[in-house]
Amino acid sequence: MRDRLPVIVLIARKLLSVILTLLLASFLVFAVSEFSPGNVARKTLGPYAPQESVDLLYQKLGLKDPLVERYGRWLGILLGLRADPLQDPALKLNFVDPRGARYFGNFGYSSLYKAPVNDVIWSRLGATAMLAGIAFAIIVPLSLTLGILAGMREGGLLDRTISVFGIVATSVPEFASGVFLVALFVVLLGWLPGTSPLTTGGGWPVWSQLVLPVSVLVLYDSGYLVRMVRGAMVDVMNRPFIRTAMLKGLSFPQVVLRHGLRNAMIAPFTVILLQINFLISGVVVTELVFAYPGFGRMILDASLFGDISLIEAATLIALCVAVTTQLLGDAGYALLNPQIRLR
Amino acid sequence: MTSPLLSVENLRVEYHGASGAVTAIPDLSFAVQAGESYGIVGESGCGKSTLLMALMQHLGRTGRIAGGRILFDGADLTAATRRGIAMVYQDPNAALNPTMTIGSQLAEVPMLVPGVGKREALDRARQILADVQLPNPERVMARYPHQMSGGQKQRVVIAMALLANPKLLLLDEPTTGLDATVEAAILDLISELRARHNTALIYITHNLGVVAQVCDRVGVMYLGDLVEEAPVRALFATPKHPYTRRLMACVPHLGSTKHSTSFLPIPGQPPSLARRPPGCPFGPRCDGFAPGRCDHPVPDETTEADHRVRCIRWAEPGATLAASAAPLAPSLPDDEVVLKAADMSTVYTFAGSGFRARKVRLLANAGLSFEAHKGGVLAIVGESGSGKSSFARVLSGLYPSSDGTLAFGGVDVGRRDVTQRTAAELAAIQMVFQNPDATLNPSHSTEFPLRRVLKKFGLAKGERAISAEVDRLFDLVRLPRGLRRQRPSRLSGGQKQRVAIARAFAAQPQILVADEPVSALDVSVQAAIVNLLLQIQADKRTTILFISHDLALVHHLADHVVVMYLGKVMEQGPVGRLFAPPFHPYTEALLSAIPVADPDAVQSRIRLKGDIPSPIDVPPGCRFASRCPRRIGDICDTIPPPLRDTGEGHEILCHIPVMTLSELQTKKNEFVFN
């Protein structure tokens, strides 16, 4: 049997692969959004800017250079190795960043919000992270419990009830359940606010503004996860080692908790973590329905407007979230399943 | 006579499914005395496992005991009294929880007794691991199941059963799927534990050899009925029920070869439970079926003191068994060499781990040299991990050889993988694999793979020609043509293997590579498949490369045998020479591990210690040295042994001179000749 590597080597190797992934992915993001150089200058200046300004910017940014070279410069600005040329007063763009033109994490200037990307993006991300965090904290225990209860006795009454709930919950789209909940709790009962701007101006405390968006997400996402967990649990409960455990004389709850649970977690674990990515950048519909100042809605707005810097920044952040969950996933998977060894 | 430990009286078990109730066990009675070892044999689907599950009170949601009663230790068997019964399962890989350490899985059992704490439970677990002869129990406790070999896992499962201090141990095919050497060691362990704790055993198996070795009394089960029950010696000496006799006629003996007798397979297969015949359950498959007598319910009859039989014609033995099987006139190999391995080696390289990744080299085949003759059966035997399948992979072009040559038709095919081979070369070498359930695509009809072969190699052109050829192939493997359009899930294991054989012969191969083609099948089906292969070979003069770990079977059908260990040929020779002394010490150990289907057989008892070692970084001397029971000294570890020729192409790779081996072994192996 081969020796295990020291943990530090494993971590270093993992980090190296993360950095490589990020580099490659950021190049793809850059290439997709800035492939056509003429577009970049035009979009930065807006549709009504005179052609001379566009040409000047084209010169100034060196947009005629090959893609890889432009990517290098972009990366330099992001890492704080170069100054952002857009902040040059000679361009008369009036792009001012109080942090200066050259610092680590400089995502550039948002043409949509007329502010540095860093001033726009973090508050939006924070708002979404709050929504996602609360939703995730409810979704995971809820769907694990329901999935395991359903899957431990396949075909039982509990299984059938929970499975029907799962199918209904996943098949109702977010906007439909959003509208339905609003009709019930806002229009009919008047218990909750219909929009969630996260300000207290409307007279509703912030927590009450979170209830409906979180409910919509929980309903939609846990329906899917319950079905995943149930499937895995059914599978495990039919494996011979469960029979071994039962014939040993263990009680049914002992069999489920000690022998079923951990094995049933292995398959859905990765999918559960993927929900983080979905909750961070994929909940546009819910944010729109409740006018929630979130990350997903910001990406949508930026895309529609053509705010290249903001799109690039947002995609990169979403990527970082994805890579992090992936790392967590690998580590957790190895903890759950002793047959997996980290390489 | 004291009251029995377990007494099953008129037991009736039914399954209630969506399509109504079926009776798995109609009316079953038997008893097991304290300390007795009771064997139950029969083909798959005969209700053996249902009986075990009924004894364990674990019939699932659909099954229920519909009549009769089970008395255990003088009281009705209930969930509470069931504690005195423990079970050892068929597949130790599946029976253990992959995410729990061995120690915590074992400790659960003693902790079921109120008042036993974790520490005490772990102590008992450690002790019991030593009892089942696992070295270093402390380390075993901390391991996960995947870190252990199959034989070690089965020892853990046995230990788990013993922790319950059972009076009765149920063993459900505990050694099926294990190597013969490991099987022998497990059987030894079971006998020893039984003697020490005076535990009664119910041993379920389809292997009559195992029954002969470990059981005192045997019940033969067919379609939920106990058709015959007798002490083991009486059963093997005078089997009375035609089913028992047919089963025994399917078992390969070291006393016979394909040239002296052929197997007498049982025609057809057990009917499904829903279609139980009105009279004798075996009637439809019995040669002695007498209308008007056998289609009425058959009573149990006691023929001698302990011998029960359920056959109306048991007293007319000649009437119920067809004349003993004449040999099939199998083909004899001629002088033409079809395949010649010359010093052929296969090396697998793996990327190592760590920053300075050192390549790990695994020598799967080390300098193989042998020849296969046209029309002959070349058998390759050895434990798992001996490199048998690696050789098959090279021959079939799935992996290239690394050194030496593998000459087929004047070409070194070893270096050419499937993509580099010509269509003719591909067609000429065909495979039949071990597990027929996994080799056929479940979503294609059974004729689909045959048609594809015919089209791909252009052996039949046009729909009518192809269809006629498929019919011919179905006839060749004795499959009803009506099955052509069925999905594989509708077929039995034996039928699936026939489809796989038909597929192989569709390409009109010169060499058929059969990798353990019958080891997953019942003996009765195995006998039929072996007969079929020999029959087709006699007609077509195909060369068969038969890879197997079953030495008795190899003795029956092979012409030339190659014994491999850790990638190297230890001994090879014509079948007559190989199965007579002198043996290589490894062959000797393999032979002594065969469960011989004869309770009176005197067998030398040589057991190999431990498992086959890792093929990475093998020592420079003899590869078998670390486990060799006849090791003579340091020379075995340091110097490669010489190849000793004993004549007639019989070669032994060993430091011990042939004469010495001969003397050491002659006395102990009389059984080989009887």
UniProtKB/TrEMBL annotation, chain B:
Spell out the subcellular localization from the entry.
Cell inner membrane
- SMART domains in the record, alphabetically? AAA (SM00382)
What membrane topology does the UniProt entry give? Peripheral membrane protein
Which segments cross the bilayer? none
Q: Where is the ABC transporter domain?
A: 6-248, 339-591
Q: Where would one find coiled-coil regions in this protein?
A: none
Give an example GO molecular function.
Answer: ATP hydrolysis activity
Main localization (coarse):
membrane
Which InterPro entries would you find in this protein's record? AAA+_ATPase, ABC_Ni/Peptide_Import, ABC_transporter-like_ATP-bd, ABC_transporter-like_CS, Oligopep_ABC_C, P-loop_NTPase
Assigned keywords, A-Z: ATP-binding, Cell inner membrane, Cell membrane, Membrane, Nucleotide-binding, Translocase, Transport
What is a biological process (GO) this protein takes part in? peptide transport
Q: Name one GO cellular component term.
A: plasma membrane
Family, per the entry? Belongs to the ABC transporter superfamily.
Q: Which NCBIfam families match?
A: oligo_HPY, PRK11308.1
Q: Indicate what this protein is called per its UniProt record.
A: ABC transporter ATP-binding protein
Q: Origin organism of this chain?
A: Lichenifustis flavocetrariae
